[in-house]
């Protein structure tokens, strides 16, 4: 709303703490330092936050440059607002472990599901989310 | 994004260098990458070092995301000033429009001091008018003299420059320092004269483009980081302020100390630093680089009185710089409407509550008002909290003002519209309706106040024709070998040349002829296809249209048949044409398909022509060997021939001298011969009334055939496609036993042959 009234711009978001969700599902939190016309973002003191259930863990990542096309959403974090009390912060190792377990259970259920479907002669093709082929 | 410092770090105190620097800049404004101080990029390295050190010191452990306290007062890096050398250039910034006399390079400090007072105002005005890039900090020593992109933006730099005169006497240590700093002048030397201070304040208030500036004037960095200057503040007003923003800021933030002390200073506000400007060298052929990108909001005029004066200049100034010329209506206007409209309320309010200035010419006035209100309210809320945080964030403003403007420029470019109603229909309509509604309400409430209803000025970008003229230097050889998206360069100079070779001509003729033949064949084919499809279509068309279709069919067939005929003789197939068509494979195919559709007389004529020209055809067919296609359609035709016609046909086949020999050599020819003979035999044996024997022709012909058959060596006799069964009986009629046996052997015909 700064230079270009009536439009949206990231200019005002510079130097503020943001949370960005990427296309690959990662959540990054950091200070937005620089942008460009493609909404490529430069994050400073970035932290990757992994959420598993009610727990979350932060992995410090340093400086991130995110290509604009990979951004799903981006929002400013109000540092003054009290943090969410529902979520519980745990250590990195723990959260990674939790994540791994989550992935595992998911894979197992998926496998079982596929097997069941196959037995019934149905097949649901897996959605191809990969960009590379 | 690169940031190049355009000032030579090493060139500190030298006044005599100023002229040099100036000259340097004049040489090639755009090329400070290679020539100018842009080539030297020490500063970013130092910056990096500083920031890195800061990181180490503070530690990044534990994902500490919160901005670090500037324990780093590490380096007083935020102010970027080259103290000494910046004295004179700003003061002597020669700004032609103003006709200010430029001071001589080696100006002694005290002169500079005076100059600062008188020249400074004008100079700042000039800079304002030229809409200088706020991010180019006082490095400006080299930059200042440059008319267009230069002029230090940050108030700090201005401040510094003005402080220089006072600082210089004490600046013994300054030349040593590498880091730009806000000289401690104002503090250590006690409060400067009030006029000086107020002047400085003016300057700050003028230059509100950057966060540092914002800080100066308010506690709320966030609020004002992007804000554009306050509304005009009359100089007199400021002098009254003892509790000036400047002083408060200085008290709060603490002025940067000299390097020995500065680094450990906790109170230092590193975000006062303004990073050095980026290089401004353009790509040749692309639009000229504007240090002040299109879309830059204008700086605010200092006062009402100056408004008009100022107003005149933006048009003069930026206009020549506008690449497309289209933005003139956009930005020509900003200061005056702004000044008039907005001047009254804000500046007299609390200094910390500066309303945001937008480039809102093109906005509907109502919209603008709404925006301002919104900004004000938002500013009020966040004013308190933002300030502390910002003062502790050492990494702020990594993105320079210039860069922000650059991004905004790109976004603004998308707003260009030659037809606002087409591009932004809903926006226009919405505000129109609102206006109407307001007018209605106003009319209801009061009868006057029409003057409040301002006309909506929609941004119109004139469609300017750009004719690209390639960049050329006088005296150079030809054009530059540079191409960009706007001027794709012709890579090859291709020139058409016609070959006048005789052989070429002949070859060409041959090709032309062939093309002609093919063309004829194609035409006939299309007719033929129509004819062939007739029946199918006939069945499908409804009753009413059948007649028309029939008519058409008739025409088609007529056309088809006549196409083969000679021009003068109606009943004779044009040999030339026939041969021509049959010389190509497709033509032969065509004739084969065509024959069944021709009326019998014409079909006979065609067959005659074929027989007549068989040698030629055989020769042409040597490569393709497709005459065999003709056999199938040929047989019914032959079989339908009358005896005289048959005789004629046989005669044709025998034609001139040696033709039969050639015929016999060709498979098709032999087949055809056999067909004829067979037909003759059939006629004789089946039909008692056959007139074949009426004249001797047939007999004679058969005799000659048999003679030929016997005389021709077996090797040159090509086997036919098929052998009719009754040949033997035919021959037995005409030849004696001995010869018959010979023939039998030769032709491999036997009584029981198929």
UniProtKB/TrEMBL annotation, chain A:
It is found in: Cytoplasm; Cytoplasm, P-body. GO terms for cellular component: Lsm1-7-Pat1 complex; P-body; ribonucleoprotein complex. Keywords: Cytoplasm, mRNA processing, mRNA splicing, Phosphoprotein, Ribonucleoprotein, RNA-binding. Pfam families: LSM. One of its GO terms (molecular function) is mRNA binding. Residues 5-80 form the Sm domain. CDD domains: LSm1 (cd01728). It comes from the Eukaryota. SMART domains: Sm. InterPro entries: Lsm1, LSM_dom_sf, PTHR15588, Sm, Sm_dom_euk/arc. Gene3D superfamilies: 2.30.30.100. PROSITE patterns: SM. Belongs to the snRNP Sm proteins family. Interacts with SLBP; interaction with SLBP occurs when histone mRNA is being rapidly degraded during the S phase. LSm subunits form a heteromer with a donut shape. This is U6 snRNA-associated Sm-like protein LSm1. The gene is LSM1.
Automatic annotation (TrEMBL), chain B:
Residues 46-58, 263-272, 379-392 have a biased composition (Basic and acidic residues). It holds the Pfam family PAT1. It is found in: Cytoplasm, P-body; Nucleus speckle; Nucleus, PML body. One of its GO terms (molecular function) is RNA binding. Residues 169-180 have a biased composition (Polar residues). GO terms for biological process: deadenylation-dependent decapping of nuclear-transcribed mRNA; P-body assembly. It comes from the Eukaryota. Residues 89-105, 149-162, 191-206, 280-289 have a biased composition (Low complexity). Residues 473-617 form the mRNA decay factor PAT1 domain. Residues 7-31 have a biased composition (Acidic residues). Keywords: Cytoplasm, Nucleus, Phosphoprotein, RNA-binding. GO terms for cellular component: nuclear speck; P-body; PML body. InterPro entries: Pat1-like, PAT1_dom. Residues 1-120, 139-218, 250-305, 364-396 are annotated as: Disordered. PANTHER family: PROTEIN PAT1 HOMOLOG 1, TOPOISOMERASE II-ASSOCIATED PROTEIN PAT1. This is Protein PAT1 homolog 1. It comes from Nothobranchius furzeri (Turquoise killifish).
């Amino acid at each position: 709303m700064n230079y270009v009234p009536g439009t949206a711009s990231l200019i005002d978001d510079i130097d503020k703490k943001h949370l960005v969700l990427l296309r690959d599902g990662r959540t990054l939190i950091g200070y937005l330092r620089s942008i460009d016309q493609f909404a490529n973002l430069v994050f400073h003191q970035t932290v990757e936050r992994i959420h598993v259930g009610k727990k979350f863990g932060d992995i410090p990542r340093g400086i991130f440059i995110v290509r604009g096309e990979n951004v799903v959403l981006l929002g400013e974090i109000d540092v003054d607002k009290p943090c969410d009390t529902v979520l519980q912060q745990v250590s990195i190792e723990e959260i990674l472990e939790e994540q791994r377990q989550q992935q595992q259970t998911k894979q197992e259920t998926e496998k079982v599901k596929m097997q069941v479907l196959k037995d019934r002669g149905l097949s649901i093709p897996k959605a191809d989310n990969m960009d590379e082929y | 994004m690169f940031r190049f410092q355009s000032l030579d770090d090493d060139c500190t105190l030298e006044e005599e260098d100023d002229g040099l620097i100036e000259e340097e800049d004049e040489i090639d404004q755009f090329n400070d990458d290679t020539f100018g101080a842009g080539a030297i990029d020490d500063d970013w390295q130092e910056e990096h070092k500083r920031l890195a050190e800061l990181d180490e010191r503070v530690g990044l452990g534990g994902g500490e995301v919160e901005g670090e306290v500037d324990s780093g007062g590490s380096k007083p890096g935020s102010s970027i000033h080259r103290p000494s050398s910046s004295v004179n250039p700003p003061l002597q910034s020669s700004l032609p429009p103003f006709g200010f006399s430029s001071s001589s390079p080696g100006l002694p400090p005290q002169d500079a001091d005076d100059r600062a007072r008188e020249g400074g105002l004008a100079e700042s005005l000039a800079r304002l008018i030229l809409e200088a890039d706020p991010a180019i900090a006082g490095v400006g020593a080299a930059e200042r003299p440059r008319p267009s992109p230069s002029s230090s933006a940050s108030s700090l730099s201005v401040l510094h420059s003005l402080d220089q005169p006072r600082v210089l006497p004490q600046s013994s240590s300054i030349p040593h320092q590498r880091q730009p700093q806000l000289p401690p002048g104002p503090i250590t030397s006690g409060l400067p004269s009030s006029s000086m201070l107020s002047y400085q304040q003016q300057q700050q208030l003028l230059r509100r483009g950057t966060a540092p500036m914002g800080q100066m004037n308010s506690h709320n960095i966030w609020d004002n980081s992007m804000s554009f200057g306050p509304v005009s503040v009359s100089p007199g007003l400021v002098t009254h302020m003892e509790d000036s923003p400047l002083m408060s800021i200085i008290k709060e933030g603490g002025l940067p100390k000299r390097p020995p002390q500065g680094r450990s200073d906790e109170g230092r506000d590193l975000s006062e630093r303004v990073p050095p400007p980026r290089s401004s060298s353009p790509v040749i052929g692309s639009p000229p680089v504007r240090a002040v990108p299109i879309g830059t909001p204008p700086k605010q005029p200092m006062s009402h009185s100056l408004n008009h004066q100022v107003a005149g200049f933006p048009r003069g100034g930026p206009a020549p710089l506008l690449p497309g010329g289209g933005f003139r209506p956009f930005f020509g206007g900003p200061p005056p409407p702004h000044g008039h409209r907005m001047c009254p309320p804000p500046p007299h309010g609390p200094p910390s509550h500066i309303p945001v200035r937008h480039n809102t010419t093109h906005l509907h006035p109502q919209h603008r008002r709404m925006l301002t209100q919104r900004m004000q309210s938002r500013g009020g809320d966040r004013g308190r909290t933002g300030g502390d945080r910002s003062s502790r964030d050492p990494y702020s403003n990594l993105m320079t003002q210039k860069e922000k403007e650059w991004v905004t420029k790109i976004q603004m470019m998308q707003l260009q519209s030659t037809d606002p109603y087409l591009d932004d229909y809903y926006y226009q309509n919405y505000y129109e309706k609102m206006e109407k509604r307001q007018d209605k309400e106003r009319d209801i409430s009061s009868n006057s106040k029409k003057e409040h209803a301002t006309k909506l000025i929609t941004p119109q970008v004139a469609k300017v024709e750009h004719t690209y003229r390639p960049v050329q230097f006088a005296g150079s050889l030809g054009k530059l070998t540079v191409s960009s998206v706007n001027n794709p360069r012709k890579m090859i100079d291709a020139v058409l040349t016609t070959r006048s070779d005789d052989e070429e001509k002949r070859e060409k003729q041959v090709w032309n002829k062939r093309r002609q033949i093919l063309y004829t064949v194609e035409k006939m084919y299309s007719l033929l296809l129509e004819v062939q499809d007739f029946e199918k279509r006939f069945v499908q068309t409804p009753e009413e249209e059948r007649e028309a279709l029939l008519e058409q069919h008739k025409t088609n067939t007529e056309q088809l048949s006549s196409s083969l005929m000679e021009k003068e003789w109606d009943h004779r197939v044009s040999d030339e044409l026939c041969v021509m068509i049959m010389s190509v494979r497709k033509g032969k195919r065509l004739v084969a398909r065509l024959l069944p559709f021709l009326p019998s007389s014409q079909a006979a004529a065609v067959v005659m022509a074929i027989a007549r020209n068989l040698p030629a055809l055989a020769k042409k067919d040597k490569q393709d060997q497709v005459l065999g296609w003709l056999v199938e359609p040929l047989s019914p035709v032959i079989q339908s021939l009358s005896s005289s016609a048959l005789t004629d046909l046989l005669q044709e086949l025998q034609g001139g001298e040696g033709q039969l020999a050639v015929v016999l050599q060709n498979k098709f020819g032999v087949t055809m011969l056999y067909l004829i003979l067979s037909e003759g035999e059939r006629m004789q044996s089946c039909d008692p009334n056959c007139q074949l024997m009426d004249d001797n022709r047939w007999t004679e012909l058969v005799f000659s055939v048999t003679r030929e058959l016997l005389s021709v060596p077996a090797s040159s006799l090509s086997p036919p496609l098929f052998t009719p069964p009754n040949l033997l009986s035919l021959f037995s009629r005409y030849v004696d036993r001995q010869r018959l046996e010979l023939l039998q052997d030769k032709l491999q015909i036997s009584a029981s042959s198929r």
